[in-house]
Amino acid sequence: MIVFVDQVTERLQYTFDFVFKQHGLHYTLTNDLSLFIAATEPKFSYSDYPFDEVPILIPGSLLFEEVIDTHLTLSKSEWKGVECLSIDGKTDPFAAIFYVISRYEEYTNPKRDKHDRFQASESLLFQFDWLKKQIVEHWVKAIVVNYLPSKLAEFESGKTLTAIPTFDIDNTFAYKWKDGFRKWFSVAKDTLKGNKERANLRKLVLSGQTPDPYDTFDRIQQCAQRFDQTRVFWLLGDIGEFDRNITWRDSRHQRLIRTIGMVARVGLHPSYASNVSDKRLLEEKQRIAQILAKNVTESRQHFLKVKLPQTYRRLINEGFKKDYSMGFADQPGFRLGTAHPVYFFDLEANLATDFKLIPFAYMDGTFNEYLHYSVDESKPIVEQLLTEVKTYGGVFCFIWHNETIGNSGKWQGWSELLDFTLELLDGNNTTPSAPN
Question: pLDDT digit string (tens) for 257-311?
Fold first, then answer.
């Protein structure tokens, strides 16, 4: 196909690459009027030039700007029968797509939670009741249907669903392998609080009479053997208020990481502290590379701490290629408006990158700790999210932790939701292969 535009900009090229190239449709942009008129392939104009007998989509200004406008007026509108985002009174689906996948609102809305995270409640996707929809994919399909109907069959045939179960290892064990100071500090804390149940469980675990409640690594390996795209992200940061894993120097810990790495792709779970420290991030990357004896290029931020553009700039500078943090802690759904991978666009630099963002649809703690849902209340939401991915394609990525599938404490019975998700995904697995 060929598309006429008045000007090819960084934003426009990035957006059209996502809409067409990343959805398997070849396209060419041109501002050569005679070339466009003479072209015989399917075509349309993203311009206000008055063509005869050529579909025209008159653009808004967003894709032709180079700076961040902090005063955009946003509203819910309709375009070709589909709910759409209107920007400054203009309903342009390409501009709407760019606004969402670039995370424009996270540069202009300063409100953050106590962990300095942009929350779902602040997002227009949540406010417009679009968060549980792949709303960007609704817009992409509407563009193809209305401007390139001859490409619709090709577009639909290219849709696939890739299952990506993921596990974050914040605390490898509840009681095992803790060093002397941490062990005795925990014992003293239980004694002071009168927590006899926890104290007794610790004794049973350390004496070998009962398994550690966080020791669910056999279960994680089984998942990886069943779903070949399974990812495991390991926290190897130094001890801090929000970073409390077993030391990375423990040889037993290293052997466990290597064992999991034989069946699943192991990535780095950059620590809470590393989110503002290049030095810490580099150290942690070197640690996991040393343990696995290979370079590691995939990550997910601890606490989902993403600050744009700084977090991704830091990851890029340290050689990471993919990140799996793009979702919300406080609500399930599609933070990027899509379940398809998106390349990070650095809005401050007005520059597209080759750093890939893999969105996730839900996290275990969102249901239990943020929304206080039961397992049964959570199941229909998981099913709704998966239906969107089945319908519009993409990756169905979701987050669990080794401690949350152990059915212990406040997580009693929650492994049922993981089982439910995996059963829904049976038949939608990718072709078995080594993790890529």
Answer: 999 999 999 999 999 999 999 999 999 999 999 999 999 999 999 999 999 999 9
Residue with tokens 């795209």: 229
Instruction: Assign residue 232 the CATH number of its domain.
Output: 3.20.20.370
Domain count, the chain: 1
Instruction: Write out the DSSP string of 242-266.
Output: S--PPPTT-HHHHHHHHHHHTTSEE
Angle 390-393-397 from CA coordinates, rounded to 5°: 80
Computed over its alpha carbons, how large is the radius of gyration of the chain? Answer: 24
Indicate whether 417 belongs to any domain.
yes
Q: Is residue 421 part of a domain?
A: yes
The reply to whether 165 falls in a domain is yes
Structure tokens at 201: 């469980």
Angle between helices 217-226 and 251-261 (to 10 degrees): 20
DSSP 318-386: TT--EE---S-SSS-S-TTS-SS-EEEEETTTTEEEEEEE---SEEHHIIIIIS---HHHHHHHHHHHH
Q: Are 336 and 392 in contact (CB under 8 A)?
A: no
Tell me the pLDDT tens digit for each residue of 365-410.
Answer: 999 999 999 999 999 999 999 999 999 999 999 999 999 999 999 9
Domain assignment present for residue 171? The answer is yes
The percent of the chain in helix, strand and coil, each rounded to the nearest 5, is 40, 15, 45
Structural domain for 368, as ranges: 161-425
